[in-house]
Amino acid sequence: MASLVALVVAIAASVPLVVEGKLETGVALLGAQEGDPRWHYAGKFGYAIGVGSYDVRVRVRGLAEMVSVNLEVYLDEEWDRAQSLPACRRSLITPARKTHVLRATDEWGPWMGGVLEQNVRPHIWYFALSKCIGHVTNSTFEVDFELRSQQHDSSELSVELRHMPAATMLSLLCLSGFLVRFAMLCRRFQQRSGAIHPVIRTLAVSVLLQWTAQVLHLCHLLAYERNGVGEPGLDASADILFMLSQVVNCTLLLLIAQGYTLIQSKDAEWAAIKPLAAFVALLHVMLVGHGKLQGDHAEKHHENEGVVGWAILLVRVLLYVWFAAGIRASKQSGSLRLQSFLHRFQFAGSFYFLSYPVIFLVTQVFAPYLRHPVMQIGLTAMQTGAAFWLSDLFLSRGAYYEVSTLSSSLLPGVAGIMCFDTKEE
């Protein structure tokens, strides 16, 4: 496992070193006449304490003449107020902290840049292109732009990402160690029982999905440090796999809550729940994909910002309601010992289902530049903690082992102990 982690770092390190800054590109539709679009959001960057820099260049499409456009730079504390003003008054009334006049032709113009200093705390700075003065032949025109930003120490990572490579590496090492321990426990369980139970195999799938997601995310971040762009495909794949890992855990908890492995008559629950689990997984993938397709926008400060995050929150709350209903039904069908286990299982399972809603809501309280690390670290801790809890639940001879089918040895000639539908008076 350590060799795999080393391979990941080596692959990311092979990306050519380019230290020009985080690169954002796009196309702005602008015009100089009444009713034309006058203003376009170009990007944002979180600067740490110190003197950071930015550079921009533009070119215009389909015009033979030279046109001028303005680059406006806004501090995060004044961004919301600027958004409430008419486009051509934003730089005058707010005002924009810096304004640059850019000359655009059908060829890329020279880079024009500036510096931004933070003395008290980090800030997110917003960049916009505007066309509020001058005239052009066409009513509207398209402007290609490239915007690159850099910290005072030449890092291309925005302030919310500065410590994420180290945090992701730490998480990956922790998961790698867990997988080694998990494999050893699985082997011991197999020697004792003769086979690996489906719930253990399902947990293994969840952990491997999370581990793969962390590997891909680390590769993206290391590449980002070097070229200012990263590997968007790896980043999107990482987010999807991480979300699928959470869905697998949710499915496991729902199955056990419905009585799978606990009540003999409910052992067919897996076949019944598979279609719904597939739908929930597809829904999560679509939501993550929708968030990625939206790209960067001014209000997006973590991957699940906005409608996507609220939709996932709603799904998790509905799954929690289903989980709680299953627990209640299983308690009514089981023995006193089973009811005691289900009471403890309900507490831990509820903590897992409600972790995402709580983390998502708490994240909104933090300053924008802190939301991404709070959300990412919170969800990673939630998922890693669940892996440790479930592995201990399934692979130790504790309360779950005693009341579930895991206590039934699969080796020939060895009698198992099962506690199904019997009720203690």
Termini Cα gap: 51 Å
Element string (H = helix, E = strand): HEEEEHHEEEEHHHHHHHH
**What's the main sheet like?**
4 strands, antiparallel
Would you tell me the overall average pLDDT?
Answer: 83
Task: Give the helix proportion (percent range).
Answer: 40-55%
Number of helices: 11
Oligomer: single chain
**Spatial order of the strands in the main sheet?**
1-8-3-6
Determine the strand fraction and express it as a percent band: 15-25%
Assign the structural class, choosing from mainly alpha, mainly beta, alpha/beta, alpha+beta, or little secondary structure: alpha+beta
Q: Low-confidence segments, ≥5 residues, pLDDT <50?
A: 1-20, 409-425
The best one-word shape is: elongated
Radius of gyration: 27 Å
Number of beta-strand segments: 8
Topology of this structure?
Blueprint: H1 2-13, E1 22-31, E2 39-47, E3 50-61, E4 67-75, H2 76-83, H3 90-93, E5 98-104, E6 112-118, E7 123-130, E8 140-150, H4 164-193, H5 198-227, H6 232-257, H7 269-294, H8 307-333, H9 336-363, H10 368-395, H11 399-403
Antiparallel strand pairs: 1-8, 2-7, 3-6, 3-8, 4-5, 4-7
Helix pairs in contact: 1-5, 4-5, 4-10, 5-6, 5-10, 6-7, 6-8, 7-8, 8-9, 9-10
List keywords for this structure.
single chain; 425 residues; alpha+beta; four-stranded antiparallel β-sheet; 11 helices; 53% helix; disordered N terminus; disordered C terminus
